[in-house]
Structure formats: C-alpha cells, structure tokens
C-alpha cells in the first residue's frame, strides 16, 4: 500500500488520469483506508474539475474584428496638417519663452547701470541690494 | 502553411497571414490568460493586446524560439502585468476606503495569502477558493502551474517558455500543487 506522503503527492496525477492502471488501483485502495487522504483527494478533485470548466471556455466570437479595430488606431497616424500645426505651435512657444528670458535679462542690466535720478524707485524693484539709492531718495527734493 | 512561411508573410504585412495566425493561436492565448485572470472579458482583452503586439513586433522576430513559444511568453507577461496592476489598484482602493470611511478599513491585504470563506457562496465557492489560492502563489509557480494544467503543455515546453531548466519546472509544479492543496485544505477546514 502507498504511504500517506506518496498518496497526497500523486493526487493531482490521479485526478488528471495520468496514472497507470496499477497505480490507480493502489491509489483507490489507499483512499478507501485513509480518511485524511480521502479528504485531500476531494479537494484536489474539485480543483481539477474547476480547471476543466475554466479551460473549456471558448474565445468570445469576432476576436479578429476586435483586434482589427485596435490595429486601426495603431496604424492610422494623425493627419499631416495636425502634426505640422502641433510642431509649429511648440516651436513658437519655445522661441517666445527664450526671447522673453533674454529680454528680462537685458532689462535688468540696463536698469542697474542707469542713473537713479530719473527713476529712483525703478532699480529697487529689479535689484534692491545692488543699487538702493537711499541717500538720493531722501535728500533730492528738486 | 508552415510556421516559417507564415512568419515570412506576416513580416511582409500580409493580412491574410495575420488572420490565419489569430485563428490558429486564439484559443491557446485565451485559455492561458484565463488561467491567470479567471475572467472571460479580461482574458479576451489580453488576447487582443497580445495579437496587436504580435502584429507590431513580428518584424523583430528572428526565429530563435518557435512562434508558439514567443506568443506564449507574450501572453504570460501580459497576464502577469494585468494581475500586478489589479493588485496595485486594489491597494490604492483600500487606501481610499480608509480615508473615506474608517469603518470599511480592515487592513487585510487583498486575496494575497489567505482565503476568505465568507466572500464565497454557493456553487462559485470552489472556483473562488481556487482563484484566490492561485493568486497567492509566487509568479513562477503560478506560471508553471497554469501552463501545465490549463494548456496541457509538456514540462520541456514549459521550460522553454519560462526559460528555466527541466528540473526547475518539475519543482515549480510540485511546489505549486503542494501550496494549493494546503491553502484549499485550510479553506475547507473553516
């Protein structure tokens, strides 16, 4: 008679029908005598049956049509005018940003190098640490 | 049409060849995906993704493995990715539930390492218990188990698809069965 360890290890093959006739007979004899193996055998049997049910499911119809639908969106590139428009807008935006940055930078340099008499507050807004005309601001009342 | 010819025609962009490929492999792709996700519509979705991927990347197919092995690998990878994203989604949903309503929070991971008998009823009991037990297996054990039990693949073929040795496949299937048995026994004891 098979020992218990051996039996539980071969339960899957038993329920899948992969054992020889002799092994099948031995297994059945053991299951009649051993209650714990019988319980385990029932669990494996149910699992195997469930797998058979799942694997017998057919592919839903018209799979190829659905795949074609997906491929259409993959194959079709956006129209040329759309791609050109997006690229141009992106380039314009980039150039405007660069131009704005350069403009801001030069404005700062010009204002810090100019006299503070005409617009004493102007420099304060740009760079108050470098050019704060505190004396001129207090005493120039003309 | 033999496999070599089919590949050549696919690489040439022949739609007829692609239709033939889908017809030939759709059942195996669907069945393998079912073994992982246990849901017909999700398995169908994975099958679509796999064939779109085949269509897009067949130009790079060099024939080092057979076409069937290549498609199996894609199916397994797609299915595992689907399960990972499902798990991530579940994690964020639990966090959301925690912040929305404290009463919903159980703090238990989703179907990870234990089977919740209260979640299963009636005839679906076994199905759900098996699914939860399968989902709790490590990915390599699950892959070997699904390819063997859902696809009837030989150990040698499984070794090729998984890119592991033959003894590794034997060991993976043995451990997967043992773990499943243990989890299912625990479930029925409750």
Automatic annotation (TrEMBL), chain A:
Membrane keyword on record: yes
InterPro entries recorded: Anti_sigma_zinc_sf (IPR041916), Znf_put (IPR027383)
Entry keyword Membrane: yes
Residues covered by the Putative zinc-finger domain: 7-37
TM spans (from-to): 85-102
Alphabetic keyword roster: Membrane, Transmembrane, Transmembrane helix
Superkingdom per UniProt: Bacteria
Matches recorded under Pfam families: zf-HC2
The protein's name: Putative zinc finger protein
Organism (species): Prolixibacter denitrificans
Lineage: Bacteria, Pseudomonadati, Bacteroidota, Bacteroidia, Marinilabiliales
From TrEMBL, chain B:
Keyword Oxidoreductase appears in the UniProt entry: no
Name of the featured protein: RNA polymerase sigma factor
Keywords of the record: Sigma factor, Transcription, Transcription regulation
One Pfam family hit: Sigma70_r4_2
Similarity annotation: Belongs to the sigma-70 factor family. ECF subfamily.
CDD domains, A to Z: Sigma70_r4 (cd06171)
SUPFAM superfamilies tied to this protein: Sigma2 domain of RNA polymerase sigma factors (SSF88946), Sigma3 and sigma4 domains of RNA polymerase sigma factors (SSF88659)
Keyword S-adenosyl-L-methionine: no
GO MF annotation, one: sigma factor activity
Domain RNA polymerase sigma factor 70 region 4 type: 128-180
Entry superkingdom: Bacteria
Residue ranges of domain RNA polymerase sigma-70 region in the record: 21-88
A single GO BP: DNA-templated transcription initiation
């Amino acid at each position: 008679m098979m020992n218990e360890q051996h039996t539980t290890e071969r339960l899957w093959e038993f329920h899948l029908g992969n054992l020889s006739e002799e092994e099948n007979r031995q297994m059945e004899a053991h299951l009649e005598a051993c209650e714990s193996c019988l319980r385990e055998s029932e669990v494996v049997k149910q699992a195997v049956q469930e797998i058979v049910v799942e694997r017998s499911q057919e592919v839903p119809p018209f799979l190829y049509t659905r795949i074609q639908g997906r491929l259409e969106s993959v194959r079709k590139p956006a129209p040329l005018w759309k791609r050109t428009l997006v690229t141009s807008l992106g380039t314009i935006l980039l150039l405007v940003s660069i131009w704005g940055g350069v403009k801001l930078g030069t404005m700062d340099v010009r204002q810090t190098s100019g006299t503070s008499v005409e617009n004493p507050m102007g420099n304060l807004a740009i760079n108050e640490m470098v050019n704060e005309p505190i004396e001129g601001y207090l005493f120039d009342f003309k | 049409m033999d496999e070599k010819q089919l590949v050549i025609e696919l690489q040439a962009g022949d739609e007829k060849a692609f239709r033939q490929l889908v017809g030939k492999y759709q059942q195996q792709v669907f069945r393998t995906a079912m073994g992982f996700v246990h849901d017909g519509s999700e398995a169908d979705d994975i099958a679509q993704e796999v064939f779109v991927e085949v269509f897009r990347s067949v130009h790079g197919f060099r024939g080092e493995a057979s076409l069937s092995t290549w498609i199996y690998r894609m199916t397994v990878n797609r299915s595992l990715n689907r399960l990972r994203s499902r798990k991530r989604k579940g994690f964020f949903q639990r966090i959301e539930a925690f912040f929305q309503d404290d009463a919903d929070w159980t703090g238990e991971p989703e179907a990870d390492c234990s089977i919740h008998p209260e979640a299963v009823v009636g005839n679906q009991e076994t199905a759900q218990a098996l699914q939860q037990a399968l989902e709790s297996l490590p990915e390599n054990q699950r892959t070997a188990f699904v390819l063997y039990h859902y696809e009837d693949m030989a150990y040698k073929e499984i070794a090729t698809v998984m890119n592991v040795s033959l003894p590794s496949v034997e060991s993976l299937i043995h451990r997967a069965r043992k773990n499943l048995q243990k989890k299912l026994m625990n479930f029925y004891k409750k």
